[in-house]
């Protein structure tokens, strides 16, 4: 469990973007990505800040629903197995925030000077606060996350990966 906690804390620092899942006005899923920065706070709380354009479909989806799912996914080239890429995902509550000078500076430091230009255009910062999530490190190494608590996922009610269910006939 100690390794999983360490990975959970360090894994987001390797990313400058996240995969997003949002729903449009008809409830249809939409997958996209956004640049991001990740911040941890002393009490074990964490937050992702994403930078998104008003022109992107996920902008309206987030405005309407104020929630999303985000995922950090290990690159295929560095993964030991294509089947068990490390991944960290969260269900998040969101809200659009005013751009402070400190946050602007954080984005520029992490993403480069282009971030400053984007914030002068139609880009907005959205705060994404994780409610719950999951971390997968490999076979038999899946964890559920609720706040600062992580528990090992022992498989589904169907018995996990080793069980086979017969199709209904």
From TrEMBL:
Occurrences of domain Pyridoxamine 5'-phosphate oxidase N-terminal (ranges): 8-133
Give positions of region: Disordered.
149-169
Keywords in alphabetical order, please: Oxidoreductase
A Pfam family hit? PNPOx_N
Q: Which Gene3D superfamilies match?
A: Electron Transport, Fmn-binding Protein, Chain A (2.30.110.10)
PANTHER family named among the record's database cross-references: HEME OXYGENASE HI_0854-RELATED (PTHR35176:SF6)
Protein name per Swiss-Prot or TrEMBL: Pyridoxamine 5'-phosphate oxidase family protein
Could you tell me which species this protein originates from? Candidatus Haliotispira prima
């Amino acid at each position: 469990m100690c390794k999983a906690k360490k990975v959970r804390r360090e894994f987001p620092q390797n990313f400058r973007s996240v995969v997003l899942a949002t729903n449009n006005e008809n409830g249809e899923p939409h997958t996209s990505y956004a640049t991001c920065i990740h911040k941890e706070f002393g009490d074990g709380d964490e937050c992702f800040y994403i930078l998104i354009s008003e022109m992107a479909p996920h902008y309206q989806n987030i405005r309407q629903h104020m929630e999303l799912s985000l995922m950090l996914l290990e690159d295929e080239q560095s993964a030991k197995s294509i089947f068990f890429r490390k991944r960290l995902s969260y269900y998040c509550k969101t809200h659009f925030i005013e751009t402070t000078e400190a946050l602007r500076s954080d984005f520029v430091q992490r993403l480069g000077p282009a971030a400053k230009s984007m914030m002068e255009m139609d880009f907005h910062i959205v705060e994404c606060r994780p409610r719950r999530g999951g971390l997968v490190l490999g076979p038999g190494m899946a964890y559920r996350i609720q706040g600062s608590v992580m528990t090992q996922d022992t498989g589904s009610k169907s018995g996990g990966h080793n069980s086979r269910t017969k199709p209904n006939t």
